[in-house]
Design goal:
Strand order of the largest sheet: 1-2-3-5-8-9-10-12
Largest sheet: 8 strands, parallel, barrel
Helix content: 25-40%
């Protein structure tokens, strides 16, 4: 396969887990340490795990069985999207079910796979309720939950929630700070611009399983990259031109500022696995190709510093069960989980 991206720069694989810092806390977190490993690439799946290329809505006939199959085969995570409404102009309702409710369902039907949101539209939800839901799910999952947060990309939804689309960047930062405060602090004192205030007499329960809950940026969240680097624990972007990935990761690391601090970068992509293992890689629409081209691409991306790839099966032309089995047999062994 012709190399679709430039050759990698050096990738640090030794990070500094200093007691008390953010990374040290997350090395003990079940989901974070499973999905994000320094110098390694892992694979997750974006729900629902079924193709629906000609419809806005999946059938959801075998959704639990497919998640259990993915878990048994060794995929690291299932990612749930937040889509309150069917918008014909957008044309995709993700897994249909509310992500927090669905995460609770998956908590009862899985044992090891991480469950994450990609991502909760924080600008349209009450951050205290999001914190309560996330901590509850994390407890039910035994620490297998990852909270990904976004600003959403559907302008039409904002008026329904009485939210100003033009203020989404400020609303996100404000809600993020409040959510982070109630998840980590006991009886906090805090004043929010867009929400309420805490005077130190109330404590949110439950708290997350570990020292704190990983908070991930899904997309750019309408924020400056330096703010994301300071405040989040990692980023999941959207697939673009693969040749740009080294530049994206370079900018991300520069914003973090310390080469020994691990804050992962990954991306999500529509995906189709060709029956022909030698089929060439195609980037648009989504990611298509045979397993040989994909394996070469992902090995290169691992060396460039990509930590996680989340595959969206909506555009599959083959049965999901068949594709899961092929990926597990020919791709995952090259990227073993610790």
């Amino acid at each position: 396969m012709t190399d679709p991206v430039q050759r990698p720069t050096a990738q640090p694989t030794s990070f500094r887990p200093v007691a008390g810092d953010r990374y040290c806390e997350l090395t003990q977190h079940s989901a974070f340490s499973r999905v994000f490993q320094p110098g390694k690439l892992t694979f997750g799946l974006i729900a629902p795990l079924e193709p629906y290329p000609n419809s806005h809505k999946p059938a959801l006939m075998q959704h639990t069985k497919l998640v259990q199959q993915a878990e048994a085969l060794g995929f690291s995570a299932i990612w749930l999207r937040d889509v309150p409404f069917y918008d014909p102009g957008f044309g995709d309702v993700a897994q249909v079910y509310d992500p927090m409710v669905y995460a609770g369902w998956l908590a009862a039907h899985t044992r090891t796979i991480a469950i994450g949101t990609a991502g909760i539209i924080l600008t349209l939800r009450d951050p205290v309720i999001v914190a309560k839901q996330a901590a509850s799910i994390d407890q039910l999952l035994g620490g297998r939950f990852l909270l990904g947060l976004s600003t959403g990309d559907r302008r039409a939804e904002y008026p329904v929630f009485s939210a100003d689309y033009e203020l989404r960047a400020e609303r996100y930062r404000d809600a993020f700070e409040l959510l982070q405060t109630v998840l980590k602090e006991s009886f906090p004192v805090h004043k929010s611009r867009f929400h309420g205030r805490l005077d130190g007499t109330l404590d949110l329960i439950p708290k997350p399983v570990g020292p704190r809950m990983p908070l991930l940026a899904i997309g750019q969240c309408s924020q400056d990259i330096s703010w994301l680097a300071r405040n989040t624990d990692g980023r999941l972007g959207h697939q673009g031109d693969f040749r740009e990935i080294p530049k994206i990761i370079e900018r991300w690391r520069a914003a973090i500022g310390d080469a020994q601090v691990f804050k992962p970068y990954g991306y999500g992509a529509f995906f189709d696995l060709d029956k022909n293992p030698d089929a060439p890689l195609q980037q648009k629409p989504g990611m298509r190709g045979g397993r040989h081209a994909l394996l070469e691409l992902w090995k290169l991306q691992e060396s460039q510093g990509v930590s996680h790839v989340a595959l969206n099966f909506r555009t599959l032309r083959r049965p999901a069960q068949e594709v899961l089995d092929e990926l597990a047999e020919y791709i995952l062994p090259h990227f073993p989980l610790n």
